[in-house]
Amino acid sequence: MTLLSNRLRAVAKMVDTNARVADIGSDHAYLPVELIENNTIDYAIAGEVAPGPMSRSKADIDKFGLSKKIDVRLGDGLAVIEAADKIDTVVIAGMGGILICDILTRATKDQLSNVKTLVLQPNIGEPLVRHWLIENGFAIVDEDLLEDEHHDYEIIKAQRSTNTSELNEAQYLMGPILMKKKSTDFINKWQRKLNGYQKAVVNMKHAKKIDTEKIHKMQQYIKYVEEIL
Length: 229
Fold this sequence. Notes:
Strand order of the largest sheet: 3-2-1-4-5-7-6
Largest sheet: 7 strands, mixed
Low-confidence stretches: none
Distance between the termini: 38 Å
Mean pLDDT: 94
Strand content: 15-25%
Structural class: alpha/beta
Shape: elongated
Number of strands: 7
Radius of gyration: 19 Å
Order of helices and strands: HEHEHEEHHEHEEHHHH
């Protein structure tokens, strides 16, 4: 049985066996249901920020008879987590990078006290997420990239670490592990991005007001991508 899109299936693969999961912005609780049905985990919190999605998640969980294993809670971000829940893994999927960083930044020490693993799938703004992780004591341990319905999705798995090494700008942009894996989807994404950057530089050079700083930044991106491709 699978309720999951290819994107969420890739997110599910990043969750460790026997993790205690909080899925923030759970979207029908599809991910927790799948993880429990597959015996990957046996407890999850499905966090929703609005009553409508919360009641839909509850209905889906009841339908699968999993109300004893999945708590649906209404709250803003990680406010749905209590220390007694012993949540060790937080999943935030399908939001922009700025919002993901904001949710994590607003979390209290209590809400993050037991959290050792973050599985994050930003729709945009992946470099921002990587910066947040490194700056807040998380090391990136795995990454995945897939194209699904004409959109590139990156999934970043990070674990709390006392020894987080700084990334270089190319790694923040493209992902340190994705750069090593160099999958077909990765190459396709960055080939498209490279074409876009090159066109943007040409257009910026012909603009009435030339933004040299922006051109320089774009040229840096072109250099990073050309080096990896």
